[in-house]
Design goal:
The protein is mostly helical and about 120 residues long. The chain folds into two domains: about 35 residues; about 60 residues, no CATH class. It is about 55% helix and about 0% strand. Helix 5 packs across helix 7. The model has no long low-confidence stretch (mean pLDDT about 80).
Length: about 120
């Protein structure tokens, strides 16, 4: 693999975009560098590193599981073990399934294991 040096002007632009909050993956793809390079370069130049973001599954769970008054809550639907297992096998994140069915992860796993 041949690695081309990155020009100082390009490095400055990478750091500038990092400081504006642009996603690291987008910066890396735009400049053809590894995904770790923008943060590494920012750190070398004395820029404070950003805190890691939350996963999309966790953000979805938190938004779905936010507190609601009892009167506004929809009735809890029964968890179909075959449906849960199918959704898991299709690659749907466990947190999203659990949030959708209003189940804890332990309840979700138990229901999936009970599927035929």
């Amino acid at each position: 693999m041949i690695v081309q040096p990155v020009a100082d002007s390009v490095k400055a632009e990478i750091v500038r975009r990092y400081q504006t909050g642009e996603p690291i993956a987008a910066i890396a793809a735009g400049f053809g560098v590894s995904i770790g390079y923008p943060a590494k370069l920012a750190k070398r130049r004395g820029v404070p590193l950003r805190q890691p973001g939350k996963s999309s599954a966790l953000r979805a769970k938190r938004s779905l599981m936010s507190w609601k008054p009892e009167a506004d809550m929809a009735p809890r639907r029964a968890a179909d073990p075959a449906d849960i297992r199918g959704r898991l096998l299709a690659g749907e994140p466990m947190l999203l399934i659990a949030a959708d069915l209003d189940l804890g992860l332990d309840e979700l796993v138990a229901a999936a294991q009970a599927a035929p």
